[in-house]
Amino acid sequence: MSEPLLELDGVHTHIGQYHILQGVDLVVPKGGITVLLGRNGAGKTTTLRTVMGLWHASRGTVRFAGGDITQSPTPDIATAGIAYVPESMGIFSDLTVRENLFLAARSVKNADRMDEARLEWIFGFFGALKKFWNQPAGTLSGGQKQMVAIARAIVEPRKLLLIDEPTKGLAPAIIQGMIAAFRELKQSETILLVEQNFSFVSALGDSVAVMDGGRIVHSGAMAELADDRDLQHKLLGLSLDNHQ
Amino acid sequence: MTTISPVAPQDSTLPKVRVDMLPLLLVPVLALLMLPLVGSFPTWVTLTVAGLAMGMMVFMMASGLTLIFGLMDVLNFGHGAFVSVGAFTATLVLLPMKGWVEADSILMNLSVVGLAILLAMLVTGILGWAFERIIIRPVYGLHLKQILITMGGMIVAEQLIHVIWGAEQIPLQLPTTFRGAFIFGDAALEKYRLIAVGVGLTVFVTMFLVLNRTKVGLLIRAGVENGEMVEALGYRIRRLFVGVFMAGSALAGLGGVMWGLYKETLTAAIGGEITVLVFIVIIIGGLGSVGGCFIGAMLVALVANYAGFLAPKVALVSDILLMVTVLLWRPQGLYPVAKR
Amino acid sequence: MIRNLLSGDLPRSRLLSAMLLVVFCGLALAPFLVPGARSLNVAATICVFVVLVASYDLLLGYTGIVSFAHTMFYGIGAYGVGLALHGMGPSWWAIFVGTAGALSLSLVLALVIGLFSLRVRAIFYAMITLAVASAFAVLASQLSDLTGGEDGRTFKVPEILQPGFRLFDAEILGRAIDGKLITYYLVFCSALALFLFMLRIVNSPFGRVLQAIRENDFRAEALGYRTVIYRTLANCLGALIATLAGVLMALWLRYVGPKTMLSFEVMTDILLIVVIGGMGTIYGAVIGSALFILAQNYLQLLMAQASAAMSGAPLLANLFHPDRWLLWLGVLFVLSVYFFPTGIVGRLRTRALLRRLR
User: Fold this and answer.
1) Which of residues 199-258 of B touch C (CB under 8 A)?
2) Fewer Cβ atoms within 10 Å of its own Cβ: the N or the C terminal residue of chain B?
3) CA of C332, closest CA in chain B: separation in Å?
């Protein structure tokens, strides 16, 4: 495809005494959706958190857009152009939807001066946000909170979005809406998406990497994996059955 | 989110805004309930105003502490030291400018007290910056050490006050026009208490506006709930925290000046004595909640005043009783702060 | 034999052993070594503080609980026995009733506070205990009908413990065997027994669980230990022993009052001693108390001289004013939390260990 935007090279991460990432090599090309698959505890979330600088790699390097961000503090990584949607969504439940987005729009000093056109673009696929614009985010439903979390990541142009399990705990009807939104998003954004729901990502992903035991055990085009039932079984095994 | 919630389709109806009003009502309800018990309306007015004034002063001292805790999970057991330092710094203005204090002119009185407050807040603010850097920073996340270190810092600060200002009590004169009381019918309202209520309300409103209307304020509130996410959005929470720490210390200094003038004598232990009350207030309010802290301060002070009048022996432990009652009702305080 | 007495927890440092031996012999022979009421008072205070501080170490050092209510339990013990002797007259029965009453009150309070707040975080517990202890101190100084208020109460102890009592007429090593001496040895022996008891506890399986909880309560819980129960037990135990320390102090002083028994200064003293002596070592209580109380009584004399010598510079003179010795201790305290978190004892042990490895 194109030049790599994010590159992890032999990354090891320890959390306390636990050795979670044991040499992760991962390349995220520019444009489209790269999907990170794997069982619970394979190290997917840790990979995202290590990229974001929320945990630091004990060995190896993380390069983003040509620069080494391995030991950079989280705010610097964010300003370099990476947005993060954690699995817990990280919504500020005390603040309104508007205020949540306002804080994510770093360059905007006044909440009334947010980029109208961009907001309308976001409302285009997350209509509920417009409706609940001045509601405290804590009062929203799970799916709506997820919309706030993703909207926060794209309220200003960013180079890379890290999104952790956006469909977790959502009802099927809402997941359909999410698929539509991601289709739209991937036209303009680069996304590294962690998922367990294979049917969700097989329709969306461009490339895929599979993790197991703190390492990448397979990477390639999504189409390839989607067509190869045997490979799916070998790599994802039980987790597939669980999630379909 | 691990629970699978049965979510309705995307455009479901407007979710109900759930504003927790109950604690807000506590203060007026308590005051009204006490009216028949106190019996006489003028006495009740005097007691209520006295309670509110005391509550406002305690709020000034407590609000910074609760925010500091909410934002960085740091509890400064030496917070009282800023109260003492603030009060003693004020003497640097009030004692040499005795003429202005004694003058029978509102303007002169106001400017001398204003100057004292300004200096006190400046000194405690800077001291807060140093305290954060030297004492607190090395022990982030280590609660045990934090408690010990800040306690040690408090001992040292108290002793340094003795070194600088001597070990004797310092009498502090209330400016001439702040003395006395307004008489409404049979009710006497001490002027200084009204001033304290005014200053306290100003602090509260300012704080409310900053926290709700400015980006920094929103970031602070967001940081209390989820500091990691604030960092992931690209803001340095440490810088935010240093700012809050300085502001909180300066507010404690302001509270110290007001409290010192109220008591009209200063001892180095003034901060240590008030610390217990401040802790009770922020526990009642819910650690990290400014609104809860405000209500907590009012409740504690009102209860203390009513109890002092109705049953002096009970007043000795009224704070503790109030705290236990509130915690039995809401174990996390009036307004528990959502954490991560 | 000694190993058995010390529950297998030896000092593990030659210098530390020597220091402990000096303290032990000094305290054991104090009435015969140094003349005068004042030095005997210092020795007795050290004995009581060893117990008080070690019982605090049980919480802080071994369980990781920060409590500010330790003086409250100490005060309960002192007031219990003091008020009983005051009200019932000088009899052993009164001492027994006072002690038993104090112990039960302490136990109930420790249980209630513990169950109420130990399940939440360390900071919360510290704040609650601070509030409760200060309320208790206020009560003791205000309910003057019962407690004697700010002035406290003086009382008579059973005859054999009274200073005027003579066991026999002859003197031993130039010292009359009077009631004061008997009281001293009562205090000394009780303190020694309590100290050895605590050493036994921290080296028992129970003590090991406490330390596991302190290191990682999540893991201890996962291993199947009910951390709340263990914490509460440790809390009660610490409270009971502090109560006994209070009983000893009251018997020694024949006086109880809020300043000496309940004030926050006593609490800060305990904190300073346990941190400087060495948290989580029990022995730290001995070294810390001995140094602290000696310094409190004799260092201040030195400071007074220094201060007088500097009377030309008021600020400097103030810095060395004998009343300011807490300033220097406070600085020492902060520094030791940063740089020597294991205190004197930990320091000595590490040194000995390094030497052995070399």
Assistant:
1) none
2) C
3) 9
**ipTM of model:** 0.91
Rounded to the nearest 5°, which phi and psi values hold at A84?
-130, 130
Average pLDDT, chain A: 89
Q: How many domains does chain B have?
A: 1
Range of the domain at B300: 50-329
A25 compared with C11, residue with greater pLDDT: A25
Q: What is the pLDDT of residues B2-15, one digit of tens each?
A: 333 333 344 444 44
Q: Is the pLDDT of residue C223 over 80?
A: no
SS3 C333: helix
C306: exposed, middle or buried (Cβ count in 10 Å: 0-12, 13-18, 19+): middle
What does the block give as tokens for C257? 């009052």
Share of chain B above pLDDT 90, in %: 51
A6-9: which pairs have CB atoms within 8 A and are 24 or more residues apart? Answer: A6/A51, A6/A62, A6/A63, A6/A64, A6/A65, A6/A160, A6/A192, A7/A61, A7/A62, A7/A63, A7/A64, A8/A47, A8/A50, A8/A51, A8/A60, A8/A61, A8/A62, A8/A63, A9/A60, A9/A61, A9/A62, A9/A63
Instruction: Judge: C337–B153 Cβ closer than 8 Å, yes or no.
Output: no
**Contact predicate B271/B62, CB 8 Å:** no
CA A30/CA C36 separation, integer angstroms: 87
- Contacts of residue C127 in chain B, CB cutoff 8 Å? 75, 279, 283
Specify the CATH number for A4-81+158-242; select among 3.40.190.10, 3.40.470.10, 3.40.50.620, 3.40.50.300. 3.40.50.300
Give pLDDT tens digits for C25-46: 999 988 888 878 888 999 999 9
Q: Between C66, C326, C341, which is nearest B147 by CB? A: C66
- For residue B6, tell me if it sits in a domain: no
- CB–CB contacts below 8 A, B to C: 97
Identify whether B323 is part of a domain: yes
Interatomic CA distance for residues B277 and C338, integer angstroms: 29
A98 touches chain B (CB under 8 A): no
A137 Cβ under 8 Å from any chain B Cβ:
no
Contact residues on chain B for C315, CB-CB shorter than 8 A: 163-164
Instruction: Give the residues across from A11 on adjacent strands.
Output: A24
> CA dist A4 to A32, A70, A137, Å?
12, 16, 35
C75 and C140 Cβ atoms separated by less than 8 Å = yes
Does B147 contact C121 at a Cβ distance shorter than 8 Å? no
Mutation pick from A94, A146, A147, A156 vs chain B, by most beta carbons of B within 10 Å, is A94
How many whole angstroms separate alpha carbon C31 and alpha carbon C186? 13
Residues of C within an 8 Å Cβ radius of B: 60, 64, 66, 116, 121-124, 126-128, 130-132, 134-135, 138-139, 142-143, 264, 268, 271, 275, 315, 318-319, 321, 323-324, 326-327, 329-331, 333-334, 337-338, 341
Cα–Cα distances (Å) from A177 to A165, A223, B3, C319, in that order, read 15, 22, 20, 72
Domain boundaries, chain C: 21-357
Q: Does B7 touch chain C (CB under 8 A)?
A: no
Q: Which fold has domain C21-357?
A: ABC transporter involved in vitamin B12 uptake, BtuC (1.10.3470)
Going by their DSSP bridges, the two strands B187-190 and C255-256 should be labelled as unpaired
What are the residue boundaries of the structural domains of chain A, listed by start? Answer: 4-81+158-242, 94-157
Instruction: Provide the β-strand partners of residue A36.
Output: A194, A209
